[in-house]
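<given_protein>
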Amino acid sequence: MTINVPPLRERAADIALLANYFVKRYARQLDKPVDGFTESALAVFANYSWPGNVRELQNVIERSVIMTQERRVAVEDLGGQFASIEPKPDTHRSKRQRFDRAEVMDALRETSGNVSKAAELLATHRRQLQRLMRRYGIDRAHIE
């Protein structure tokens, strides 16, 4: 049986979810108070081609958690390969972030229906996620 998984560069919505997962994992392992990324770091991630796919993302985040002295990983902490990448204005979510139903469902599945943790994964506020759940008709009890 063959399972075809598209490259990370074709799954832009997954980049932030994976990045947040890995930053929390390595912060816990390294006992560092790092809890996320700056907006510009996430924008640079979205504009990078990720030739090494998820493994490259994982390695970049591990290295950045080691290097950062702040609570949030900034572009400067990512390494030289990201220094020349400019965040494109159109890749930033608006101040009021917009997530599609699939992104909300993925975050809720990842956190077993925990709305607060899913909101952290999406880098949004819990109340905003609850509004999105109502808008999309998502019931926590029916998360697979």
About this structure: The helical segments are 12-30, 39-47, 53-67, 101-110, 115-121, 126-136. Residues 94-144 form one domain.
